[in-house]
Every structure is written in C-alpha cells, then in structure tokens.
Amino acid sequence: MPIDELIAALKNGSGMARARAATELGQQGNIRSAAALQEALNDKNPTVRSNAAFSLGELGDTSATAKLISLLSDDDQWVRKSSAKALGMLRAKDAEPALEKALDDVSEQVKRNAHRSLELIRGNSS
Fold it and tell me: Rounded to two decimals, what is the model's pTM?
C-alpha cells in the first residue's frame, strides 16, 4: 500500500487498521512516515502504540528517543516491550538509565528487551 494511504489509515482507521498501518510503515522503511508514527505513540490503542514504537526503531528515527523512553512507563507491557526494543535498535545512549530501570519491570519480555538493548547500546553485542 502506498505510504500516503498507510499514513491516512494510521490517523483515521479502525484500531486494527491503525495497528496494521503502523507495522507496514516501519517495514517500508520510509523516514517520511516518522512524524505520523511519532503521533501514533499517543494513540489510545496500545497495539497501535506498540507497533509504532517498534516501527520507529526500524526506521532509525532517533528524534523519537525521548518519547520512547517515556513509553517504558506505559501501562501496557507490549508498549513497554516494543519501546525497549526500539531504543536498542536506535542505540539510544540517553535511554540507558530508563532501560536499567526497566530491568525491574514485572514483564519478563520487557526485562529481556531492556537487557538486549543495553547490550546493543553499550556495544557488547553485534
């Protein structure tokens, strides 16, 4: 689907359509979608927020770092998991303290992603 249609779906579609659009925008790898994905980090649907976070990591959009760090405190564990993963993909040094705190998250998946991201940021892994 063309990027403009995906951005429109991300902004105006049903919850499922917005979530799917967020994923597809990341897979397309077009940085033009970064602003729309950053807006989607505020979506009421946690699946949309989660998919948008991961997609921003795929795009390498370091301007999303501060918002992704804040999402490590989201109520939804999948949002926290995707945000932790994205911060590692971005090699976001600013995120180290927040990722260290995420090592104590109640979700094992969040802990694993935080640990892996810290390794990536610190250069302890390829």
Answer: 0.94
| Three-state secondary structure call for residue 65 | helix
Q: Which one of 1.20.1530.20, 1.25.10.10, 3.30.70.1120, 1.25.40.10 gives the CATH number of domain 3-122?
A: 1.25.10.10
Rounded Cα distance, 59 and 75, in Å: 24
Q: Which of 95, 100, 89 has the alpha carbon at shortest distance from 125?
A: 89
Segments of the chain scoring below 70 in pLDDT: 125-126
| Contact status, residue 6 vs residue 21, Cβ threshold 8 Å | yes
Number of residues that this document lists for the chain: 126
